[in-house]
Amino acid sequence: MPRLAFAQSFWDGYDTLEKPVRAGVRKAMAKFQAMSVAELNADKGLHLESVENARDRRMRTIRITDFWRGVVLAPDDGSDTFLLVNVLPHDDAYTWAAKRLYSANTATRALEVRDAVALDELTPLYASAARTAPRLLFADISDGTLRELGIDDQVLGAARTLVDKTQLEAFSTLLPEDQLEVLQYLAEGFSPEDVYRDVVAVRRPADAPPEPVEDLATLIANTPARIRTVTGPQELEEILHKPFAAWRVFLHPSQRRVAHRTSYGGPVQVTGGPGTGKTVAALHRVRHLLGRSEDSRILLTTYTNALATGLREMLGLLLDEDEKLMARVEVTTVDAYAHGVVRAASPAALKPIGDREQRRLWEKAVSRLDLPFTAQFMAQEYRHVILGQNLRDLDAYLGASRRGRGTGLGPARRREVWSGVERFEQFLRDRGETTHLRVCARAADILADGPAPYAHVVVDEAQDLHPAQWRVLRTAVSPGPDDLFLTGDPHQRIYDSRVSLGSLGIATAGRSFRLRVNYRSTEEILTWSARLLAPVTIDALDGEGTDSLAGYRSLLHGRRPQVQGYASRQEETEALVERVRSLLDEGVAPHEIGVCARFNLSLDTAEEKLTAAGIPVLRVKGRTARGAEGVRLATMHAMKGLEFRAVSVLGVGEGAVPFAREITPAEADPLQHEADLLRERCLLFVACTRARETLSVTWSGEPSPFLPAVT
Ligand SMILES: Nc1ncnc2c1ncn2[C@@H]1O[C@H](COP(=O)(O)OP(=O)(O)OP(=O)(O)O)[C@@H](O)[C@H]1O
User: Ligand 1, closest atom to CA 515?
Assistant: First the structure.
């Protein structure tokens, strides 16, 4: 019997096919599993036929319904795997199939596809323009180097005509996938050595023979990032019936590399801009670790309860709801886990209070002791220095470094601070209360006294954790191979946590990886959003050095973000209602639209107006009923980790973004002032990068100083 495989190009459209067409696909595919090659060729219903004037002689079409055809790549080399590459209306299927050429990449050894006809037509046009261009995009890179990176004759010809990245983008839908990625990396300025490591080596099979093997079955096996092989009728039924989630099957090679590595010597960090599939990589790592032993237990954490609920659902999908496997993974937030640990040790645990109540207690302590500090200063000193370094007594505080704080404090002043801290903690004790970070400190003490409860800890949204939370995670697993796997993006740091992971016993040197391909948003949305961060430097995830978005890009294209000021709040809200209405008219479902603002108050107005216009809305606060219909309204903080087809960010005006009240005056502490501004800037970046296809950013009055100047 022949074997069957499905290319990602087929899945891209499968979910949108109508039911009878999908039924036709299932029927046709079942034949491939039931018949011999000779029977397939003779089958009248399937009507497997070659395509006239095809660039690829292996191209075949099959009948799916009266009007729809499947495009199949048939082996002509004695191997036995058929590859379904597309399903299209009759005429489109023939046109599509005739132009496409599948080939083996000489460096990655994977199967790639190009639009050979369009490349042949376009290259001479670009070549004549290139003759007079002052500089060509790949002028500095020799043919030999390009060939070593897998660039073949036709692509080389095209690449030599390009003058800039925009032209490369124009070619992006025509070029073979791996070769395109090589060219994109080179265009970003990465060295050929880096490109070989990050693009070629991660794809090339470890046991690749010196000379490329060209039979279709081997090439298909070499292309797990884009092709799924199906082993039996049951698997076929399952995958064609369920809604297809590409992230479960097709990992980008850079995701696969980090998630599937058999073992790491110690903690691993995976960074990448928004939407680069870090959460997906973390989930695949969990599945990989589960498969390595029968009974190991894993702690999987993220930042909020709402994100933990989402993560649990995704893990269920990835593990096919296997209860035994699911039972071995605890999916939670660090705070919730720490509470559990403390409660288990002393059932009469104290009640944690929020930031606002803490602020009130600091105010009380400052005024009772007549301290020469503001409540805000005390709260920050407590968070960053005292809890940050786990200082337990005055002597430790007197000797501590206050790096990162912008005001000097001599011993006398430190004594005053400490008296305030003691008073604050006394208030908490008197009221039977505590704070989340104090719970974490307590949990880390308890965990340090016993055997580590987990074999592995996997952390998503790692950028926002405080050192006290890291201490919990560090003590939840013994130091050693595969202890911690962290994913995060320092550009999305919105809670002012400063860490040096190395000093917390989480050294990731030599085990740091970066994801660069955005799967969520269009290139237009990314480029615009990245400009929000252009003026600032971002500290690395582990606190050592800085991070950057170099090479960060998307393969998707769409409309440019709409960035618009209005004369009044009322006009801005009216424009929002219009925008949402036209999105709904275009067929975007209400839950695929996100509206966000810095404050809940601005969302109240939006909610009122949308509701009055008869548009269903739903506020995202903590746990939102996921299935419920309605346009999602969320504060910028609550947007973390979410995504929508369309996002409207409201109220991006002066005074709101950054929120003046949350910014420490520069005179009080210049470093904290800068940190506060950065946090607010990142918050806007997070909000904008939730958009998949459409982004609008609006304000009334004066715009936020963070918005890039209109060009
Ligand atoms: N290999 C993949 N194939 C298809 N889709 C993918 C893949 N990896 C990720 N995605 C999709 O891209 C989107 C972003 O992925 P994910 O949430 O993992 O990114 P992230 O890096 O964690 O984002 P953020 O930092 O912004 O929260 C999701 O819709 C996810 O399903």
Answer: 21
